[in-house]
Amino acid sequence: MKNPEFLAGLEAAVAALRTTVNTEFATLPLALLNQRLAPTSWSILECLEHLNRYSRYYNAAFAEALARRVAAPAAEVEVAYTWLGRKSVEMMRPTNTKKSSTLKRLNPLGSDLGQEVLTEFDLHQTRLLEVLAQAATTDLNRKAVPVEFFRLLKLRLGEALEFVVVHQQRHMQQAQRVQASLRAELAC
């Protein structure tokens, strides 16, 4: 996919994530936002807090990569993937039903969470939209973003941006499944 279409798709996905949080979760009572379906499963807020923890790292890494900006090639250039980038994106796609575990520091299970998680999530999405706008003038195929869990490895800027967005989509769907199950329980 060419750079402009690629970035437009990511921007639309981020906008949809914000809409979901603001329309489906923001009005729910705190008790429901914190309710788990099982002791080891995440609540809605834990899903979003997990994404906030990733965003704290990746938004800063994107800002740093953009500060070292390399001029973008012509708009006709295709976004390219390394083996690691393609594998990372495919593992996190919401259509991939294989479960994966997270690092302890990124696992919010059992955290004391409040409405501030929703506010922080929205702030991170606003920042990500700014990053996507800035990325339009830089080379998305340059290796520039260290991987969160092993910083010696770097992803290309484009594949790192896509990884973050599909990871967010995956956990947003998880939060929506929690919400649907809780509504079904309350209806009984």
Automatic annotation (TrEMBL):
<dbReference type="InterPro" id="IPR034660">
    <property type="entry name" value="DinB/YfiT-like"/>
</dbReference>
<feature type="domain" description="DinB-like">
    <location>
        <begin position="18"/>
        <end position="175"/>
    </location>
</feature>
<dbReference type="InterPro" id="IPR024775">
    <property type="entry name" value="DinB-like"/>
</dbReference>
<dbReference type="Pfam" id="PF12867">
    <property type="entry name" value="DinB_2"/>
</dbReference>
<protein>
    <submittedName>
        <fullName>DinB family protein</fullName>
    </submittedName>
</protein>
